[in-house]
């Protein structure tokens, strides 16, 4: 494994325009195209493509096409999870999705962080920060989860929310940036 890919996998700054990473991209493009074109294929055939594309995926996971990712190999999806149309999972760092998660249409899970320094940004430096989605989370349509965010189990994130910070288990969060508006177990409301 090359130095640049090792740096990416370690969460360090790296240059994505690298021959080894381009090979991974070619692999991902072919597998995403195959998956997205296989809407009438059998469940077993579609699972076979997902198993080759993703780092870890249970046989009962359902992902509706189109589905897009950076590498695929850094994505882990737990059993019983459903991903609706138009998902974009940019996995320059691990994306871990728990069991029984519901992901609405056009949801984005983003791990890349780009340099704030203009010169380094022009040079193409970036790094990835993991995203973790707990069991039984529901992400409404169009939700964007930013790099480094963990969403606790049983949390619901309303449609169109932009999640920039961790969310605890068992809450309802909405808005841009997303904020907790109440607990889902009947407890006290969160901050408004």
Shape: globular
The CATH homology group name? Hexapeptide repeat proteins
What percent of the residues sit in helical stretches (DSSP H or I)?
10-25%
CATH architecture classification: 3 Solenoid
- Rg, alpha carbons: 17 Å
**Strand runs, count:** 19
CATH topology: UDP N-Acetylglucosamine Acyltransferase, domain 1
Tell me the number of structural domains: 1
Order of helices and strands: HHHEEEEEEEEEEHEEEEEEEEE
Index terms:
seven-stranded mixed beta sheet; single chain; globular; five-stranded parallel beta sheet; 19 strands; alpha/beta; 192 residues; 4 helices; UDP N-Acetylglucosamine Acyltransferase, domain 1
Structure description:
The structure is a single chain. By secondary structure, this protein is an alpha/beta fold. The protein has a single domain (3-183), classed as UDP N-Acetylglucosamine Acyltransferase, domain 1 (3 Solenoid), CATH 2.160.10. Helix content is 22%, strand content 27%. It has helices at 3-9, 19-37, 43-53, 118-123, and strands spanning 56-57, 62-63, 67-69, 75-77, 82-83, 87-90, 95-97, 102-103, 108-110, 112-114, 126-128, 131-133, 138-139, 144-145, 150-151, 156-157, 162-163, 171-174, 179-183. A hairpin with a 4-residue loop joins strand 18 and strand 19. Helix 2 (19-37) packs antiparallel against helix 3 (43-53). It is globular and about 50 Å long.
């Amino acid at each position: 494994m090359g130095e640049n890919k090792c740096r990416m996998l370690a969460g360090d700054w790296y240059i994505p325009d690298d021959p080894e990473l381009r090979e991974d991209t070619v692999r991902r493009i072919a597998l995403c195209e195959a998956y997205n074109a296989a809407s009438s294929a059998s469940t077993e055939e579609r699972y076979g493509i997902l198993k080759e594309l993703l780092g870890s995926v249970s046989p009962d996971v359902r992902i509706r096409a189109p589905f897009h990712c950076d590498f695929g190999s850094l994505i882990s999806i737990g059993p019983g999870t459903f991903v609706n149309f138009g998902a974009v999972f940019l996995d320059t760092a691990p994306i871990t999705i728990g069991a029984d998660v519901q992901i609405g249409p056009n949801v984005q899970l983003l791990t890349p962080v780009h340099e704030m320094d203009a010169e380094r940004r022009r040079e193409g430096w970036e790094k990835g920060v993991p995203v973790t989605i707990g069991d039984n989370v529901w992400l409404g349509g169009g939700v964007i989860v930013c790099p480094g965010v963990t969403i606790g189990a049983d949390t619901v994130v309303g449609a169109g929310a932009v999640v920039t910070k961790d969310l605890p288990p068992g809450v309802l969060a909405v808005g841009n940036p997303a904020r907790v508006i109440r607990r889902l177990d009947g407890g006290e409301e969160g901050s408004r």
